[in-house]
Amino acid sequence: xxxxxxxxxxxxxxxxxxxxxxxGVDIEAIxxxxxxxxxxxxxxxxxxFNSGFFAQVLEGPxxxxxxxxxxxxxDPRHGDVNVLSFGPVASRAFSNWSMAxxxxxxxxxxxxxxxxxxxxxxxxxxGDRVFGILRDLLTExxxxxx
Length: 146
Ligand code: FAD
Description:
The chain is an alpha+beta fold. It has helices at 18-23, 25-40, 62-73, 114-117, 127-140, and strands spanning 5-14, 44-49, 53-61, 78-88, 100-102, 142-143. The chain is built from 5 helices and 6 strands; from the N terminus they run E-H-H-E-E-H-E-E-H-H-E.
């Protein structure tokens, strides 16, 4: 059993342009960097986005999650980063994913993607609720980035 595990849930405001979304390139770049970096430091999690928001769960050893989140916060591709919850957990919920994109393939999730259609608004939700949504959607339909 792993010790010193933490889980962080945040949402942020999407600063990607329509053109970025239409190309799907930036989401792919974010996922590629996440896959590369998270795997090295045993961070796992899930990400979803729509035209307005990102919501992400990061889990792993506390120093690795903190360092990863510090980098993420500086990223100009989003802004107004709000932590919804942060704290110790007994086990991982996303142990098979260095970063899962919840809800479908990048190509299916352009600007009018699943999250947009569902009216997903993480600003109105608690950390537990956002975590639950990501976890539940992941089991239904996701792109695993192991
Ligand atoms: P590279 O990916 O090679 O990027 C080099 C630098 O250029 C970085 O500073 C990067 O921020 C910047 N950059 C790259 N592309 C763009 C662009 N299109 N516009 C502006 N600046 C750009 N990283 C993780 O490691 N793990 C995660 O789980 C993770 N989740 C993220 C979630 C969201 C919503 C966002 C927006 C970013 C996320 N990132 C994540 C990316 C993170 O913010 C850093 O960009 C990344 O960790 C830097 O990786 P790197 O050092 O390999 O640099």
